[in-house]
């Protein structure tokens, strides 16, 4: 049990968060087959969800469930150990080979989560004496991983290659440029072609976390590197997650033979954790095949995003410059974002309010996300509900 002094200090901090409209609360969400793929029952209320990362609508696809259940019945529910002990199954191995082929890299290595993949990758490759230039809006896992590596970390202005180049100045044993491919809270894309050219000029390593791009952008959904016209050789490593567009769970790092073998030897978040269930790998193999083959999912996303942006502009809503399924609607304050989310929830629409420190101070927003499971009528319903919230317009009251 915490000491009375610690308990009192923690309680004061929780109260401060509450008063600043920054307190986070969980909702309990459930899905069942009688619902549409884009619907959930949230705290007992049936809602149309506009805050999931299930961009391709695969999370509730029965073909994935059949692959998962079938393999679990045949081979069991768990892996039993880490990959380097007894946990690396034929399904894991086949999925790694298919992910490598999908991304175009020689090898891929599975991790349990995206956070663990970034920690394992950067802490294995970077060290004291190295320099890491990070986009200011990178995911928290990239920032944490760079700091834990022991390297000197310099953050550059968002999506600004010139600023990144200035951050590479100074002596260093090795230099790294680290960026998201698609930024999770803004939905915009990194200038990867310019960053790759910058990496070549400075003999730097380019690391791209494409958690929100893989499956969604580029030919066959092969991600942000492919969408930017880059080859795998233009990046040192690519990180991808499996719990977003692919609808399952887990993550991977794709890279050269040498990079992947280095991770096998040095990535502590890979070596010292239990491997994901093999049945999950079987479901992900099915998802990967569907994501590549069913282009209509990406086509529908583009249609939905275009419809939403046109409607939002007509209503005078403030949007970030994004052409991806992540469409932030900016609010005047954290309180305005909270109240807008509550009004939408009361109307049966679930949209998450995003507040500092997840986003910079003064940039609270509703993070609207679209899925191939949505219909155009769903977009129109959301726009009609947003039209009734004055606080989301410039100068609107909270």
Quick take:
The chain is an alpha/beta fold and 398 residues long. Helix content is 42%, strand content 16%.
Comma- or semicolon-separated keywords:
398 residues; alpha/beta; Aspartate Aminotransferase, domain 1; Aspartate Aminotransferase, domain 2; 2 domains; seven-stranded mixed sheet; four-stranded mixed sheet; 14 strands; globular
Describe this structure in words.
It is a single chain. The chain is α/β, with parallel strands linked by helices. It folds into two domains: 27-56 and 295-392, Aspartate Aminotransferase, domain 1 (Alpha-Beta Complex), CATH 3.90.1150.10; 62-293, Aspartate Aminotransferase, domain 2, CATH 3.40.640. The protein has 15 helices and 14 strands. The mean pLDDT is 95.
SSE order in H/E notation? HEEEHHHEHEHEHEHEHEEHHHHEHEEEH
Mean pLDDT: 95
**Strand percent estimate:** 15-25%
Report the major sheet.
Answer: 7 strands, mixed
What do we call the CATH topology of the largest domain? Aspartate Aminotransferase, domain 2
CATH architecture of the largest domain: 3-Layer(aba) Sandwich
The total tally of domains equals: 2
* Rg (CA only): 21 Å
Query: Shape from CA axes?
Result: globular
Low-confidence residue ranges: none
Task: Lay out the secondary structure.
Elements: H1 4-19, E1 29-30, E2 39-42, E3 45-49, H2 62-75, H3 83-87, H4 90-103, E4 107-111, H5 114-125, E5 131-135, H6 140-149, E6 152-156, H7 161-167, E7 175-180, H8 192-201, E8 205-209, H9 224-227, E9 237-241, E10 251-255, H10 257-266, H11 268-271, H12 278-293, H13 296-315, E11 326-330, H14 334-346, E12 349-350, E13 352-354, E14 365-369, H15 376-387
Parallel strand pairs: 3-12, 5-6, 5-7, 7-8, 8-9
Antiparallel strand pairs: 1-2, 2-3, 4-10, 9-10, 11-14, 13-14
């Amino acid at each position: 049990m915490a000491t009375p002094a610690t308990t009192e200090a923690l309680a004061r901090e929780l109260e401060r968060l509450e008063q600043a409209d920054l307190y986070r609360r969980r909702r309990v969400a459930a899905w069942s087959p009688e619902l549409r793929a884009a619907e959930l029952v949230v705290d007992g209320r049936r809602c149309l969800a506009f805050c999931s990362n299930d961009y391709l609508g695969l999370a509730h696809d029965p073909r994935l469930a059949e692959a998962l259940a079938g393999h679990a019945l045949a081979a069991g529910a768990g892996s039993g150990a880490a990959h380097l002990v007894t946990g690396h199954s034929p399904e894991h191995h086949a999925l790694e080979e298919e992910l490598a082929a999908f991304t175009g890299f020689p090898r891929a290595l599975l991790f349990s989560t995206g956070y663990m993949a970034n920690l394992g990758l950067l802490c294995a490759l970077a060290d004291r004496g190295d320099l890491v230039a990070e986009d200011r809006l990178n995911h928290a896992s990239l920032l944490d991983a760079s700091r834990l590596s022991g390297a000197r970390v310099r953050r550059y202005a968002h999506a600004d290659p010139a600023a990144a180049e200035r951050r590479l100045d100074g002596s260093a044993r090795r230099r790294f440029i680290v960026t998201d491919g698609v930024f999770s809270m803004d939905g915009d894309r990194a200038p990867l072609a310019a960053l790759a050219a910058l990496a070549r000029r400075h003999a730097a390593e380019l690391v791209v976390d494409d958690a929100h791009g893989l499956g969604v952008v580029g030919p066959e959904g092969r991600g942000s590197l492919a969408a930017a016209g880059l080859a795998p050789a233009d990046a040192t490593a690519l990180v991808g997650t499996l719990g977003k567009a692919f609808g399952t769970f887990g993550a991977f790092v794709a890279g050269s033979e040498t990079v992947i073998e280095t991770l096998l030897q040095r990535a502590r978040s890979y070596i010292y954790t239990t491997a994901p269930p093999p049945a999950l790998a079987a479901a992900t193999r099915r998802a990967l095949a569907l994501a590549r083959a069913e282009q209509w999912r990406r086509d529908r996303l583009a249609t939905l995003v275009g419809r939403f942006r046109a409607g939002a502009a007509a209503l005078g809503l403030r949007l970030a410059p994004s052409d991806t399924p992540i469409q932030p609607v900016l609010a005047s304050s954290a309180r305005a974002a909270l109240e807008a989310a509550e009004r939408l929830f009361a109307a049966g629409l679930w949209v998450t309010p995003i507040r500092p420190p997840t986003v910079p101070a003064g940039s609270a927003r509703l993070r609207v996300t679209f899925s191939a499971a949505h219909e155009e009528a769903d977009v129109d319903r959301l726009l009609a509900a947003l039209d009734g919230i004055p606080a989301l317009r410039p100068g609107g009251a909270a």
